[in-house]
Amino acid sequence: MPGYRVIWFRVVRFPDYQVRLVVAIKNVKDLRVYQLALELLEVVYQTVYKIPHLKLRTQLTKSAEAIAPLVSEGFSKRRNPKETTRFYEMAMAESDEVLTHLEEAVILSKTLRTIPRVKCEILLERYTTLSKQLNKLFSAWKKFSA
After folding, report:
1. pLDDT tens across 44-103, in order?
2. For the whole prediction, is pTM greater than 0.85?
3. What are phi and psi of 121, to 5 degrees?
4. Fewest beta carbons within 10 Å, which of 2, 12, 61, 123?
5. Which residue range(s) make up the domain with 59?
6. E-strand spans in the chain?
7. Which SUPFAM superfamilies does this entry report, sorted A to Z (predicted)?
């Protein structure tokens, strides 16, 4: 396909044969990791105002807000593999930081009734998924650029 650079594919295995599903990534909005980071950011915004500790609230929103722009910047630097991997590593670090702050929020929710514990646990699961996807993107990018 002219104008497209394929950097992501999924292999679906069947008993007798393999089918390779190729998804063309033309801009950063085509990346599932980017889409998920923005979806989860909206949920973080809805949840975070119920956390009474300003420092935790601020750190949680800052780290959640940083993931999508880092993925975007890494994608825009794809002609320079070192820069791309650096930005993807920073996005993974921010995602792990969100997980840590959500763990703190779950601990706080045991004593404070204002924090929705179930929502924090759901966010923990979703950000764990995001971290795994970022790790797969990072690994795929390293293989692709090598």
Report:
1. 999 998 888 899 999 999 999 999 999 999 999 888 888 999 999 999 999 999 999 999
2. no
3. -70, -40
4. 2
5. 27-145
6. 5-13, 18-25
7. IVS-encoded protein-like
